[in-house]
Amino acid sequence: VQLQASGGGLVQAGGSLRLSCEASGSIFSINTMGWYRQAPGKERELVATISSGGVTNYADSVKGRSTISRDNTKNTVYLEMDSLKTEDTAVYYCAAGRPILSRTTSPRAYDYWGPGTLVTVSS
């Protein structure tokens, strides 16, 4: 499975961003896609994921100001984040896999990763 992400860049605090990630290849091997992020000096952490059936899982830090969605016909997942904060600055990674637990937060549950896209939120 190959993941191609787009979006990100420099955003002002309070602004919004939209990330998208398209999966290609052996799509049958995945059922859940989503986003993780990693800030400098920190571990990779969950942002949000969504299963093929539409079950979503959000990190508490983004809940209420983020929406993850997917278009199964395009094998693409979208993440919209509003009210951005400087602490949202990180490299965002698209992830895909078939986790045993649909609401897992562990990045080890995902087998496929995109190259990462930098999101910088300026104050």
Tell me what the structure shows:
The relative contact order is 0.32. Strands 2, 4, 5, 6, 9, 10 and 11 form a 7-stranded mixed sheet that branches. A 4-stranded antiparallel sheet has the order 1-3-8-7, with no helix packed on it. It is mostly beta strands. A hairpin with a 6-residue loop joins strand 4 and strand 5.
Percent range for β-strand residues: over 45%
**Which whole number gives the mean pLDDT?**
96
Q: In angstroms, what separates the terminal alpha carbons?
A: 37 Å
Number of strands: 11
Oligomer: single chain
Percent helix, as a range, is: under 10%
Low-confidence stretches: none
Radius of gyration: 13 Å
Q: With helices defined by DSSP (H or I, 4 residues minimum), what is the helix count?
A: 0
Large-scale geometry: globular
- Return the string of H and E elements: EEEEEEEEEEE
Main sheet attributes: strand count, strand direction, barrel closure: 7 strands, mixed
Structural class: mainly beta
In short:
The chain is mainly β and about 120 residues long. About 0% of the residues lie in helices and about 50% in strands.
Characteristic key phrases:
single chain, four-stranded antiparallel β-sheet, seven-stranded mixed β-sheet, 11 strands, 123 residues, mainly beta
